[in-house]
Write a structure and sequence with these properties.
There is one protein chain. The chain has 54 residues and is mostly helical. The chain contains one helix and no strands. It has a domain of 30 residues. The longest helix has 48 residues.
Length: 54
């Protein structure tokens, strides 16, 4: 009975860690998308304005 309890605890901890990583990865995906859109807007603004980086 003690071994079954340890296995259940280990499985619960692994599921909690995986779900936490999944939530943080989704948050980082949104941050990456927002940063990408900002970089694209900055690139297009620089391209349209015609400034040369020298």
């Amino acid at each position: 009975m003690n071994l079954a309890l340890i296995i259940i605890i280990v499985v619960a901890v692994v599921i909690a860690i995986v779900s936490g990583l999944n939530a943080s990865l989704q948050w980082l995906l949104w941050v990456a998308l927002i940063v990408g859109v900002i970089a694209l807007i900055a690139f297009l603004f620089r391209l349209i304005s015609g400034r040369n980086r020298a």
